[in-house]
Amino acid sequence: MSTPSFSIDTAFAQALAYHQAERLTEAEAVYREILAVAPDHLDSLHLLGVAAFQRGHHDEALTLIGRAVAINDRSGTIHHNLAEVLRSVGQLQDAVRHYERAVTLLPDWAEAHNHLGVALQESGRHDLAVACYRRALVLDERDPPTHNNLGMALQDQGALAEAETCYRRALAFDPDFADAAGNLGNLLREQGRLDEAVEQYRRVLAVWPDRADVRSNLLFTLLCQPGLGLPELSAAARDWDARHAARVRAAWPIVPGAARTRSGSPRLGFVSGDFRRHAVGFLVIETLAALAAAGHRLVCYGNGPVADALTGRFQTLALWRSIHGQTDQAVAEQIRADGIDILFDLSGHTASNRLKLFSLKPAPLQMAWVGYPATTGLAAMDYLLADRHQVPEQAEGGYRERIIRLPHSYICWEPPAEAPPVTALPAGPDGPVTFGSFNFLSKITPHAIAVWSRILHRVPESRLLLKAVGFACPVTRNRCRAAFADHGIPPRRLVFAGGTSRADHLAAIGSVDIALDSFPYSGGLTTLETLWMGVPVITCPGDTLASRHSFGYLTTLGLTDAVAADEQGYERLAATWALDRDRLGAIRAGLRSRMLASPLCDASGFARDFAMACRLAWDRHCAGEPPASIQL
């Protein structure tokens, strides 16, 4: 009896049918049968790679689709799919190259132009990304994802009004497009339209309650809203945990007592999407450098798609693991395999966070630090690393985490190499005073505008410089001018500036005499940069951690006379300081040396305190004791 012949065409048709029905296991089995007979069967190699990618097997997908490209370099579809895998594993330069090959071979394929734009945008090449999205929309003007992506790229460039139009157009074509709806909320927040942003987020969550990212964006926006205190913020954060994290709590690993007695210093892991030229990167690099120099074992888990020179510094200080695009379960397994004892979250409810990863409890102890100025609300987060200024004892009830208070400041800081020299007082002995605000637009609330307007009325001929990325948008500038005009402030007393290089940003800070801190969300890195340029910052702390960054820095520097007890005191302090030119000049001349001599710039001393905090928390854990507040 003869054996029936194997028909590749018939088998491939069957595999393709399985694949289209999302029966991936069966499809892969048939693709492999074909490749056993015909190892270079192009479509089977390609689609087996696609199936591997769909199942999260990225290395296998790269190998298979890479072989397919080697067989046929003129298939735009294969180049596109190889680029998709490369982008998912963070190899953006190679991804861009293959997307570009795809659109060269298939110039009328709108989706490929859109995806090339995404890779360029993730690489920080926003102008080129915008051009790709616009080309895609010429080819398919009704595609919601492309309108959404164009909106994000324009928003990154500060073109906020045009970005809003893009998001609304995406929603007009697809009212159920959750990403565009959430991005519209982010855009409204960035414009300072907080009430509208909150309303938009809640509208999205009413339809898509499982969107943890949108709920995180809502929480971050609530930090900027006047009138909300610790109880409301804590309740909202605990609600995030109840909705998005509680379901995995039963799967937390049970650590036997013997496993809690490791000798030596605990091994530390840090998770962030901002190991780059970002506020978080600038605020933690000195600490990690000092810890590494002292012999501590560090691992950085980078969740960002973009790397820069600062990323390279982090990679030299610690074992580096890129986790961008990886599942929470896979990363949790890696963290356990790395033997991490204390895992730090540097994002909280901000962009690129991995709070669902922390919800899996991949490390015995987990701490929040730097990235988010409030409680995460997570039952899985054991500690929040702060200082005595940010979280006083009476405020502990507003935090789900136990508080570790460092003795001086919650961070140490590396002064920027790009900073120009401190200049003489811009106002001189008798010129008009210039106030300044350099915080994000989301922090410039209508209430703050009302208070700042009263300060300008108190100080005749004074001006206010407002600098933020969003002020590159004419519509946004006009909206802000109108808000001040409602309080009697004419346009000639306002100066606007958009985003610039860091060096130019610091120079702009140096052009003002006094900075007005935002409230209820105060400046963080912005305040440090402002002080470094010799400019005092008038602040008004509240009970929330978000409101107390500037208060902590100023107290550490001995500048408590710039701290107001209430809004009326804030207005009086700003006006009083504006009249005392000798004092302003003297402080301006001495602030840098004062900062350099303070704990804010003492990396080795801070690292010792940081390590001691970790040691005390770890010792409690090894003794089988639950987390408890620690005061160094």
Brief characterization of the structure:
This protein has 632 residues and is an alpha/beta fold.
Please tell me about this protein's structure.
The protein has 632 residues and is of the alpha/beta class. The protein folds into three domains: 149-247, Tetratricopeptide repeat domain (Serine Threonine Protein Phosphatase 5, Tetratricopeptide repeat, Alpha Horseshoe); 263-412 and 606-631, 3-Layer(aba) Sandwich (Rossmann fold); 434-601, 3-Layer(aba) Sandwich (Rossmann fold). It is 51% helix and 8% strand. The protein is built from 26 helices and 13 strands. The protein has helices at residues 8-20, 24-37, 42-54, 58-71, 76-88, 92-105, 110-122, 126-139, 144-156, 160-173, 178-190, 194-207, 212-222, 230-244, 279-293, 309-317, 328-337, 355-359, 446-458, 474-485, 502-509, 525-532, 549-556, 567-579, 581-596, 603-622; strands at 268-272, 298-302, 319-322, 342-345, 365-368, 383-387, 402-406, 434-437, 463-467, 494-497, 514-516, 537-538, 630-631. The strands form two sheets. The chain has an eight-stranded parallel beta sheet with strand order 3-2-1-4-5-6-7-13, covered by helices on one side. Strands 10-9-8-11-12 form a five-stranded parallel beta sheet, with helices on both faces. Helix 1 packs antiparallel against helix 2 (24-37) and helix 10 runs antiparallel to helix 11 (178-190). The N and C termini lie far apart (86 Å). The model has no long low-confidence stretch (mean pLDDT 94).
Helix content: 40-55%
The biggest beta sheet reads:
8 strands, parallel
Strand order of the largest sheet: 3-2-1-4-5-6-7-13
Question: Any idea how many domains?
Answer: 3
Mean pLDDT: 94
Q: Strand tally, please?
A: 13
* CATH topology descriptor of the largest domain: Rossmann fold
Name of the CATH architecture of the largest domain: 3-Layer(aba) Sandwich
Task: Please state the overall shape, judged from the principal axes of the Cα atoms.
Answer: globular
Q: Work out the strand percent.
A: 5-15%
Class computed from helices, strands and strand pairing: alpha/beta
Residue runs with pLDDT of under 50 for 5 or more positions: none
Distance between the termini: 86 Å
Give the class-level CATH name of the largest domain: Alpha Beta
Discrete helix count: 26
| Rg from Cα | 27 Å
